Structure formats: structure tokens, C-alpha cells
Amino acid sequence: MPPKSQLWLLATLVVAGIVSAFSGRIDPYFLDVAMGVGIAVTLAASLNLINGFTGQFSLGHAGFMAVGAYSSAVITTNFGPKLLPLVGGQVWILFPIALVVGGLLAALAGLAVGAPSLRLKGDYLAIVTLGFGEIIKVIFQNVDAVGGARGLVGIPNYTNLFWTFGVAAVTVYVVWALLNSTYGRGFLAVADDEVAAEAMGLNPTRYKITAFVVGSFFAGVAGGLYAHLKGYLNPGGFDFNKSIEIVVMVILGGMGRHVGVILAAILLTVVQEPLRQLGDWRMILYSLLLIVLMITRPQGLFVWPLWKKKNA
After folding, report:
1. Considering only CA atoms, which of 171, 172, 212, 173 is closest in space to residue 190?
2. CB 250 within 8 A of CB 52
3. Confidence of residue 116 (pLDDT cuts 50, 70, 90)
């Protein structure tokens, strides 16, 4: 792996840590929006591996996010008082453990969905993943241990700028490094032509499951960050609309484009804030904006000829 990419990752983590140390001087509203941007980048970059680079069409990313959110929240709320003494009372040790556990459980859910369903393609796969996302939402609505339809409250606010942008940087780096590895070229081959890839000795189903599991893991970690940012979880926050929101980020950014998807995640997260002042008209105008962008830039908002030539 080129050392330059690792230096960029290290520099991003250092800057995120420094800014986070002075986050107390930042207006709470802008701080919340900034952390929401970091979580959106993680979600978009992880889905881009599945939809953009491997050529699948998943509509259940919010379901994996929900698994990670609830799992990590249960660890810090229900087991936190018992686990904190074991780590010397250090939240910075407990929190990443909770995030990783949430991510692993989300990855396990991704494997459970992917193994039987990723032999499907296109619309059929989209319907299966959509059904999974709705099943997850209904399960959390009916489990009293996690608050049921009332939601889960009392989640500690551990998320800060360092964790949100640190995880976002790691997600982008892992996806980039995976795709630029020898093994990762298989994802691109499967996306281009599954039949040709299989004729060359590749196993398309294995590559699709791998992409699904990796993408689900980071979606689960993003869910954990979201839970410990808001301090409250409601199953309705992980519905079909949330999955569509993440898919739109990938499509508008240009499917299979690292930088484009990151910029689209930032743009679509920030643009919703001024629209909140419009009340019920907010979603109407937001939807119209998306329709216009889809019509005028179907190839992606941040894809242009020069970029295509350099990154073909």
C-alpha cells in the first residue's frame, strides 16, 4: 500500500483529534451538523462499495445501521456501568469496543442476508434487501428490551468530532485500499461482467458477499456513532426513507466514485438544514431538488469528463 495514502489517513485522524479537543468553542448546532456529515460520509462510502463498485443494488443499508446502533447502545447503557471499571473507567476504551461489536453484529446480519440472496440481481436483490430493512425495523419496534416503539433512551453522548471523522476517514481508506488491492480488483470485474469474471475463475457470489459484509460492518459502526450522538433511538428513524437517502448520496455522487460520493454526502446533509425552516414544505422542495438533479445530472453530480479520464 502506498505510504502516501497512509499518511493522509494519519493526518486526517490527527486533525480530527485536534479540532475535537477545541469543539467546546463551536456552536452546538454547527457541531451537530458537522458530526452528522461525518456519519453520512461513512454510510455513503460503505454503500458505494456494494452499489457502486460491486454493481449490486441494496436498499437495506438503514437496517444494518439500526443493528449497529441498537447493539452498541445496549452495550454502553445496559452493560456500561459494569464494563467501565474493567477498563479503568476509560470511556475512550469502552466506546470503540461498543462500536466494533455493533459493526460485527451488523456484518453478521449482512452475511445472513447476503449468503442466500446475493445470487439474485438487480430489482430482485433490491426487494430482498428492502424487506430485510423493514423486518429489522419491526423487530426493534416489538422488543421491549430496547424500548420497543417508544424508543431507547438514556444513551450516553460519547460521539464527538474525532470519532465521526476518524471513522469516516478509516471507512474511505479501507474501501479505497480494498479496491486497489489484487483481491479487490475482483469487485470491479464482477461489476463489469459476472459471466466473464466467473469464466476467469472468480466467484462472483463470494465477492458480492464480501462487499456486503464489509459495507454492513461500517454501516453498523455509523449506527453506533449516530446512537451516541442523538442519545435516543427510534425504530422509525431507520425506515425505507433512510435507506433511500443513503442510496441517493451514492447515485448523485457518481456510483463508483470515491470523491464524488463523499461530496454528495456532505452536500445532501448540509442542504437539509436551511430547508428545516420551511416546515412541511421542506421534504417537497428537497424531493424536487433531487428530481431536478437526477434529470440534469443522471451520471452523478460530481462526475465530469476530466475526472472520468483520470480515474477510469
Report:
1. 212
2. yes
3. confident
Buried b (16+ CB within 10 A) or exposed e, 216-249: bbbbbbbbbbbbbbbeebbbebbbeebbebbbbb
Identify the helix (H) or strand (E) that includes residue 152: strand 152-153
User: 172 or 128, which is more confident?
Assistant: 172
Q: What is the CATH number of the domain that holds 26?
A: 1.10.3470
- For residues 220 and 113, give the distance between their C-alpha atoms in angstroms, rounded to a whole number: 15
Q: Average pLDDT, stretch 238-254?
A: 89
**Domain total for the chain?**
1
Per-residue pLDDT tens digits for 267-303: 989 988 887 777 777 777 777 877 887 777 766 766 6
Average pLDDT value for residue range 207-229: 94
Q: Residue 92's domain spans which residues?
A: 3-310
Tally of CA atoms within 13 A in the half-sphere of 125 that contains its CB: 22
pTM, entire model: 0.90
C-alpha atoms less than 13 angstroms from C-alpha of 4 in its C-beta half-sphere: 1
DSSP SS3 for 139: helix
Which has the minimum average pLDDT: 104-113, 237-246, 280-289? 280-289
Contacts of 163 (CB under 8 A, 6+ apart): 95, 96, 99, 225
Contact between 101 and 75 under an 8 Å Cβ cutoff? The reply is yes
Which amino acid is located at 90 in the chain? Answer: Q
Set of cell numbers at residue 133 = 430493512
C-alpha cell at 73: 447502545
Q: What is the DSSP string of 234-262?
A: -GGGGSHHHHHHHHHHHHHH-TT-HHHHH
